[in-house]
Amino acid sequence: MSYVQIEHMSKTFHGQHVLKQLDLAIEKGELVTLLGPSGCGKSTLLRILSGLTAPDTGKIYIDGKDVTDVSPKNREIGMVFQSYALFPNLTVSQNIAFGLEMNKVPKADIRLRVQEMIELVGLAGKEQNYPRELSGGQQQRVALARSLVTRPKVLLLDEPLSALDAQIRKNLQKQLRTIQRELNMTTVLVTHDQEEAMAVSDRIYIMNGGRIVQHGSPHEIYTQPHSEFVARFIGNYNVLSAEQLNQIAPNLSMREAAGRFAIRPETFREQPVTEGDICLTGKIAHVSMLGNVTRYELNIGDVSVLVDTLHMSFESEQTGTTKTLYLCPKDVIPLYDTIA
Amino acid sequence: MLYLFLPVAATVLYSLATEWNSTVLPEGLTLKWFAELYGDPRFLQAFGRSFVLSFLTTVVAVVIIVPAVFSIVVYAPRMEKLVQLFVMLTYAVPGVIMAVGLIRTYSGNGIPMIVITAGAYLVGLLPYLYQGTRNSLLALHARSLMEAAELLGASRWQAFVRIIVPNIMSGIFVSALLSFSILFGEFVLINILVGGRYETLQLYLYNKLSASGHVASAITVTYFVLMAIITSLIVRFTRRSFARKEVS
Fold it and tell me: Is residue B54 a part of any domain in this protein?
């Protein structure tokens, strides 16, 4: 049995199925991300894990123990909320100490452990500040310290970085991952940001419509999407029907009898790499500069595909010019179901 | 403004006037009406009664209503519409009709009418305390704070006392002051239900109106001063909680 195990979890809100017979397993020390669009059930699943919401059916095991009916206060779970939920009337150290006081830890230990946490999250010197006197990033770190100080078995993070600026978010992602590894903390992160999920996770569970539609390492998820939903959600995949694929690459004979095919925009190359590479020629319909990447919309016959190339030269191609590109057949990924 | 303040100014002046009958301005100024008023044990008693009745009712109302509103807003938000309807109903019943209804329902069953009056006051305070408490709780995101505290090992009671109450205290205080001042000035219910058996400041004022205009003015001025103190406290606490929100 895995360290955290969820079996046949279902939840209905006002007649609407939010979670449908969901199973999930997390190993000790792993950082697992629940990734999906708004309303896919990921936050509900997190709340069920924390005990704040009761499931309709299903079981939750943590460290081999059935905790389905255990109250949140006795579940030994730490949680960082999207809004941080810091206590406005308490200082940074009092916020962090709160959980230890509630668990009747001796005062001398509390002081020591709070200090340790403050140093771990880099908030030394801010001990006596109130939450309102801190920046968003600092508040987020207090929330993290507060949930880690009680040494929970599992740490739950509910979109903890979504309210922060891009730069601070990237720094905190790194910091979060470092701390999680340092403490070997089993962590579940909920996010709708695929980049964030890719950057920090050991494994990603992609959710849609109350179900897990695919799970695997960030690399697996990105390079081998199983469905059109995952291909579209995880990146800017080109999703083509069999006819469209046949139109742009008539010589390509796919063995799989899939209905649709996915091609990553960055797999198109300007030069052939292997002998079997398919040659495609089309007209540039649109060019957008995305910093280090230039994105072309290329019309090949009636089919339009997105092509990403590294922004190497000083001159970019003009709209209307003809461009020839090469595609390796193994980069054409068959998809076995339509959008969910 | 003139329309509003002219009678107030006239009342203040009248309470300080020696004689003011046939002249444009008072003939002389004196503090004797105040001395007479404050020297009257009946006034002090009436003031004390008003204070005790308003204060105790407000305290009991806060103790009962605040946790109730908290439970509804945080744990049963779907019931809020129904509660709001009940809260509005208290406005819908005019004082005289309420008094008659209360007399018909409760008189003769042994409960002192003053207790019945206090009970009616308590219900009457519901809109003020409900709105004040609700706004404070919503601004605080009380639900997330409760959940965070519970996940950290606190019981609901501990979370309520240690986290929620300190944060909504200034909001409750403002609502309580408002409630107190409303009760302090209440006349209709107490006059019909209790009358002379428990003479409050308003009843004393009513009785004094026919006896001496100067003393009645002195009572009014005393009442205004008390209300001004309460209002300034309300303003101070409201500003403080606004300032706190702005910083955050």
Answer: yes
DSSP B162: I
User: Is the domain of A325 the same as that of A254?
Assistant: yes
Residue A340: inside a domain:
no
Q: Is A252 inside any structural domain? A: yes
Nearest to B178 by CA among B130, B120, B124, B129: B129
Same domain flag for A86 and A127: yes
- The strand pairing partners of A78, in sequence order, are A155
The number of folded domains in chain A is: 2
Q: Which domain holds residue A248?
A: 236-335
For residue A55, tell me if it sits in a domain: yes
Q: Closest partner residue to A103 among B153, B167, B248, by Cβ? A: B153
State which residue of chain B sits closest to A98, comparing Cα positions: B152
Average pLDDT of span B91-117: 84
pLDDT at A219 over 90: yes
Measured between CB atoms, does B157 come within 8 Å of chain A?
no
Residues A122 and A143: their CA atoms lie apart, in Å, by 13
Measured between beta carbons, the chain B residues lying within 8 angstroms of A87 are 145, 148-149, 163, 167
Could you tell me the two tokens for A316?
């970019």
Query: Could you say which of B144, B150, B158 has the minimum Cβ distance to residue A81?
Result: B144
List chain A residues with CB under 8 Å of B167: 87-89
> Is residue A49 located within the same domain as residue A150?
yes
Task: Tell me how long chain A is.
Answer: 340
Question: A95 in a domain, yes or no?
Answer: yes
Position A339 confidence tier, pLDDT thresholds 50, 70, 90: very low
Q: Do B247 and A133 touch (CB under 8 A)?
A: yes
CB contact under 8 A, B154 and A89: no
Mutation target to probe the A interface, by most A beta carbons within 10 A, among B74, B147, B152 is B152
DSSP letters spanning A52-77: SS--SEEEEEETTEE-TTS-GGGS-E
Whether A117 and A170 share a structural domain: yes
Give A261-280 pLDDT, tens digit per residue.
Answer: 899 998 988 888 888 888 88
Question: For B167, which of A74, A88, A99 is closest by C-beta distance?
Answer: A88
Residues A212 and A244 in one domain: no
Tell me if B32 is assigned to some domain.
no
pTM, full prediction: 0.81
Domain total of chain B: 1
- Report the range of poorest mean pLDDT among A61-75, A152-166, A214-228, B83-97: B83-97
Residues A71, A190, single domain; the answer is yes
Alpha-carbon distance values, A112 to A106, A117, A183, A186 (Å): 10, 9, 17, 23
Give the ipTM of the model, two decimals please: 0.82
The pLDDT, as a whole number, for residue B215 is 82
Mean confidence (pLDDT) of chain A: 89
The amino acid at residue A266 is: E
Using an 8 Å Cβ cutoff, are A252 and A266 in contact?
A: no
Q: What CATH number did the domain enclosing B175 receive?
A: 1.10.3720.10
Same structural domain for residues A101 and A47?
A: yes
Give pLDDT, residue B214: 82
Question: Is B5 part of a structural domain of the chain?
Answer: no
Q: Do A52 and B151 touch (CB under 8 A)?
A: yes
* Set of chain B residues whose Cβ sits within 8 Å of the Cβ of A51: 151
DSSP letter at A267 equals G
For residue A317, the distance in angstroms to the closest alpha carbon of chain B comes to 49
